[in-house]
Design a protein that fits this description.
Structural class: alpha/beta
Largest sheet: 7 strands, mixed
Number of helices: 9
Protein name: Lantibiotic dehydratase family protein
Oligomer: single chain
Shape: elongated
Domain Lantibiotic dehydratase N-terminal: 10-193
Number of strands: 18
Pfam families: Lant_dehydr_N
Strand order of the largest sheet: 1-5-6-7-2-3-4
């Protein structure tokens, strides 16, 4: 498995021939060659016992100020892939072959898609990780197709966008700061998300939250409701009344692993933190593991 890491540029280098057995007879006839190097990277060909083979799973991809390089975890050295044949690597369909071909030609421009600055402009960018450390989370942005569909049906537009880019149901929504976790199958949360998108469409991004997703696979306890703190001038509404979502007991269901609610506190009323605690107490919530609040005083609590 190829992973991403950073190593010093002062490491020793070795050269390894890339061997690949083509099914296409045209390519096969010009790919036969004598490996002049001690090492080889064998993608699918028969093993040459005379050469020291570098297992593809033992190779990592590094990035430094000079560009991208290949690193051998077994030898602790940089690896320069070589192709001593007449095959045009750009015409080969095998992705690993093309990747190593680009590396061998040191075409820095060809690797823009894995660089952070370039990734920020893409609709989808992959997760970059080294061992158990996530260097950059998998990330999505809204595309032009979503923009066209959202006015007709926001919910349908989200569903179609998720399908196009394989976006998970539990996702982190970010405006350049720590993400807020949303459940994209929850209608009430989609209403909140719709407001956020309409206000900050150019800044919004969606990131994976594997730690939340994994946690909620075995913790199915969700209820969605809102709490409204009435204005003191509103004589028709009591100060601590729950919104219409809570009045109907059928709406307070538990599923998907977390509880979310929206607060609209009046600054002249009692401390809204006390109100939150009271709401959680009434809902029977024993443990809070995540709390997020925005300037709009919209809060989400995950239990």
């Amino acid at each position: 498995m190829l992973s991403f890491l950073r190593k010093s540029a002062s490491e020793n280098e070795i050269i390894a021939e890339v061997r690949y057995l083509f099914k296409n007879p045209k390519f096969a006839s010009i790919s036969n060659n004598i490996n002049p190097y001690k090492y080889e990277i064998n993608l699918n060909s028969t093993k040459d016992n005379i050469k020291q083979e570098l297992d593809i799973d033992s190779l990592s991809v590094g990035l430094d100020d000079q560009g991208i390089y290949l690193w051998s975890e077994d030898l602790h050295q940089r690896v320069i892939p070589r192709f001593t044949n007449a095959v045009n690597g750009l015409a080969v369909n095998n992705k690993m072959y093309r990747f190593l071909f680009f590396l061998s030609r040191e075409r820095y421009e060809s690797f823009k898609p894995v660089l952070p600055g370039y990734l920020g402009e893409r609709v989808w960018s992959p997760r970059l990780e080294y061992k158990d450390i996530i260097i950059r989370r998998e990330q999505w942005k809204l595309d032009t197709q979503f923009m066209k569909e959202q006015d007709k049906s926001f919910s349908r537009a989200i569903t179609n966008w998720r399908y196009r880019y394989n976006v998970p149901r539990i996702i982190g929504v970010s405006l350049g700061e720590a993400p807020t976790v949303f459940d994209l199958s929850n209608d009430l949360q989609l209403k909140t998300l719709k407001k956020i998108i309409h206000k900050s469409n150019n800044q919004i991004s969606f990131v994976e939250v594997p730690e939340i997703s994994e946690f909620h696979k075995n913790n199915i306890i969700q209820g969605v409701f809102s709490f409204y703190i009435a204005d003191s001038k509103d004589k028709n509404t009591s100060q601590d009344v729950l919104s219409e979502y809570r009045k109907n007991n059928n709406e307070l269901t538990y599923a998907n692993g977390f509880l979310s609610f929206i607060l609209y506190p009046n600054l002249f009323e009692k401390n809204y933190v006390e109100v939150v605690n009271e709401v959680l107490k009434r809902a029977g919530i024993q443990k809070i593991v995540f709390l997020f609040s925005t300037m709009m005083m919209e809060s989400q609590v995950y239990v």
